[in-house]
Write a structure and sequence with these properties.
- The complex is a heterodimer of chains A (about 800) and B (about 290).
- Chain A is built from 19 helices and 31 strands.
- Chain A has about 800 residues and is of the alpha+beta class.
- Chain A folds into 3 domains: about 160 residues, Aldehyde oxidase/xanthine dehydrogenase, molybdopterin binding domain (Aldehyde Oxidoreductase, domain 4); about 190 residues, Aldehyde oxidase/xanthine dehydrogenase, a/b hammerhead (Aldehyde Oxidoreductase, domain 3, Alpha-Beta Complex), CATH 3.90.1170.50; about 325 residues, 2-Layer Sandwich (Aldehyde Oxidoreductase, domain 4), CATH 3.30.365.
- In chain A, helix 9 runs parallel beside helix 10.
- The longest helix of chain A is centred in the last third of the chain and has 28 residues.
- The two termini of chain A are about 50 Å apart.
- By secondary structure, chain B is α+β, with helices and mostly antiparallel strands.
- Chain B folds into 3 domains: about 45 residues, Uridine Diphospho-n-acetylenolpyruvylglucosamine Reductase, domain 2, CATH 3.30.43; about 120 residues, Uridine Diphospho-n-acetylenolpyruvylglucosamine Reductase, domain 3; about 110 residues, CO dehydrogenase flavoprotein, C-terminal domain (Enolase-like, domain 1).
- In chain B, strands 4-5-10-6-7 form a 5-stranded antiparallel β-sheet.
- The N and C termini of chain B lie far apart (about 55 Å).
- Classes of the chains: A alpha+beta (about 800), B alpha+beta (about 290).
- Chains A and B meet through helix 4 and helix 19 of A and helix 12 of B.
Chain lengths: ~800, ~290
Amino acid sequence: MKPLPPATEHSRYIGQSVARPNALRLAEGRGTYVDDIELPRMVHVVYWRSPVAHARILKIDASFARMMPGVVTVVDGAEMAKICKPWVATLTHLAGMKSAPQYPLAIDRACWQGEPVVAIVANTRVEAEDALQYLVVEWEALPALIETETALDPDSPVIHGDLGDNLCFTRSLDTAGVDEAFANADAVAEVTFQFGRHTGVTLEPRCQISDYNPSDKRLTVHHSQQAPHMMQDLYSRQLGIPESHIRVICKDVGGSFGIKVHAYPDDFATVALSVMLERPVKFVADRLESFTSDIHARQHRVTGRIAANKTGEILAFEIDDLTGIGPYSMFPRTSAIEGNQVVNLVGGPYRHQQYRAKLNVVFQNKTPTCQYRGVGHPIACAVTEGLVDAVAQKLGMDPLAIRQQNVIRDDAYPMTATSGIKLEGLSHQQCLDKIALMMDYPALRAEQAELRKRGIYRGIGIAALIELTNPSAAFYGVGGARISAQDGATIRLEPTGAITVMVGVGEQGQGTEGIFAQIAADAVGVSMTSVRVVTGDTDVTPYGGGTWASRGAGIGGEAVLQAGLALQKNIVDVASVILKRHASELALVNDAIIEIATSHSLMPLAELGRIAYFRPDSLPAGFTAELMVTRHYAQRDYPFIFTNGVQASLVEVDVDTGFVKLLKHWVVEDCGRVINPMLVDEQMRGAVVQGIGGALFEECLYDDAGLLQNGNMADYLAPMAAEMPDIEVAHVETPTKTSQLGAKGAGEAGTAGAPAAIMNAINDALYPFNATVYSQPITPQKILRALGKV
Amino acid sequence: MKAPAFDYVKPRLLADVFPLLQTYGDEARLLAGGQTLLATLNMRLSEPSVLIDLSAIAELRGITLVGSMLRIGAMVTHSEIEVSALVAQHAPLLPLAAPHIAHRAIRNLGTLGGSIAYADPAAEWPTCLLALDGVVIAKSATGERRIRSDDFIVDLYTTALLPGEIIIACEFPAASAGHWCDFDELSRRHGDYAIVGLAGAGQRSENTLTDLRLVFLGLGATPLRASRAEAIIDGQPLTNGLIDQAVSALKAEFSAVGDLTSDAATKMHLSGVLLKRMLMKQMRLKSA
């Protein structure tokens, strides 16, 4: 593969596997997470949460709880509502979408097991939990709507009477020739896929310290969160505090995965308590309440059909998606996005001309769902790739060959895919060719055939995918959500020649600050050891959207690049004045001003800094050194910049036990310019493991009454080291032309493709038994049932 | 997830434990590693007023051969059992089972006595105790008694221990020439409680197993001895047909209790697979 031209004139760091500067601090346990922060006069809140799926709150008796040692206050929903407004989470560009008003603490009625109802504040967390045991809440159970399949039946209970029914959002898409395509097809396959609800399981739970100071009427919120400016705006609007009086600080974040990009009822409740009490209030979700109060995701039933002709040409896809989102659409991004993405993404890698989709997003009395790493992609990819394998089998075609035949050609871009999404530039053909070489596909197939004769059943699964990154305002802004699509970077030259970089996109543990340091160092012309990066503080950084939708590198990174290049120009201008040379003869390279013609160093950057900051009297009259610059970047050319990739999984299925052993996983991905191969590879691996979770292990299991059965780390099976196969990662680089940096997002594609690859591999292994499993997570029992053994 | 307040005592002598138990009665809990108890406290599922930490009592430690019995102190950790040469020689079933107990960090703290006393039907040690026909040695202020494994586990999380009694050790008959044992289990993730597991022990002569004890974990309220399967195998040369008979007898003997992701039918099917594989392995070994 031909290497890309460098992103900057003197590139030292971009493209290199540089160790990220914050890794040592975190590895040594010297990070600052919210729970590490202790403030004077700080108190702790715990929430009494609904123990059942749907209940009318009859009476709250806090008299005993208030008598417990250390208790500061007990607050219910009605009292809370006096200072915090309710919200309705809809977006105007999702036509017809509806949801009900939601309060920080439920008033009169609780709609899912885990919904916060009463706040108890005490001097310590232990005292608050002690008092919680003495809170008496009388409630009566209301009929709970648990099943999505019956949510729209006329005799099902309607969760919010004012809405008329349980339909949150519906969407249809039809290219008009679908019926004809299916009628004329040589092969049609139909599959119903089930996807289990799961959740993100961040290592650090959601947590917050809200500190309201009545003297200057300022609110400071320390928050483990992905979008500090979004939260600043929401606190301002819901509590009526001027935005300029609110500071949100997100220092170290122990994993987020989308779980921490939403505004939770207990976020607002904790802030409101701090305003009421005029002192700092800490909330740290414990693991048990995380399972019922963190957002869930991915509960879908999708019936899909695919049509192909006998040469292997895919003609059409058709899907019907039903997804359950809990009783409220989540604020402010809404819970309709995931289903909407499924509609947009199904069939995404392919050249078929016909597509029909139907989506119903329904309410139910379970924990609300919302955007979690990959948002809709794992569903769309599993449906698409499962259907492609199913039709390939009907045609007797090889799974790799049918993909190579049908993917959109690498020279066809830019183009609009059949679902209407705009694709700037992808590399499906290159990626498929590359992965076939990596895996030695023909040898694997030969080995598979040989082992089958000995009763060993291995399967090979392939999944091509597209992934939405670098979003424009099309995602949220156009729908009325005040979530910034642009981001900014400020870079300041320090007198010593070091630079300080302040960026609106924050660090969640994935290395974002590391790549910003690489980009800034190259753009300005300094060593990485001279770069300090500051993120996650609304008082300090430029206004920005934060970390979500794989936008950190592509959007935040471009802002850093442009700020760095602008600062470099300003520095050279100062050098030109000091050295009395024309600026075009000078450059800033390796922390020094050099003469371009000879590469001779003329002045260390530290000397320039000394003169500019401490001896401005020596500079000509009328010249001002501008050594701090800010640049912003918004991607405005496409709604999204799509990336692509392909994954492959090799599994062995024990057909007596239904157990699946993951033997190997391969990834070829194209995220445009790779800024740091090591970090991109690890993003891929981590995301693949989360995909393994969805494919084989993770599911929030509810009983018929809507109670979560496995809300703990013993029974909710998140994959761990022993469940991870070796994951080989390779890259194709098709840079986006929408930015100088050329980077696209890399954080989510692994999760998007892994479940499909594993599901296809399992079904490939089961092929000799004419058995298939399309229900994730694929448990041993599901495989045994498919095999007719239980 | 903060435990309610409790007192904590850490006696150095076994004799000091009994007066504490007498004083506090049901309000006391013995801390024998804490791998289950501390999580229970943090979830406020249990609110004892005092924890009696047994970890400083030397009399509860140690692995020794006493006559024809291997004695393992109640506070010996899973890891110590896993690596002990004495255990490997005299009770080889135990190091076969030990790696299946959770993860190394947990095995470094969890203890034999703690696991036996808790009597989780999915745990490895109670199952091995039953398979090896071990003896639980219980002591109270008034004396010591030996409880046979068949009598020790009474029901779900329920043992024959009386109030005021604690387990001080377990004894396992030392393996003699011809001793046979094997262990296997099926868990969805490494280190989890298994869907089902099987511990087998007995005497081996050529292709025949005798004095056979086959004990399943994860099927019911207690570890379960597959008596009917044992009866079919015991004393007969292993054949494919005999093994199939044993599997059928197993499925006729029990109706398993399902868990969240494996129902009774799946558990019984998997039990049959475990039994068949264990016996087939034995048959192949002998014919090789």
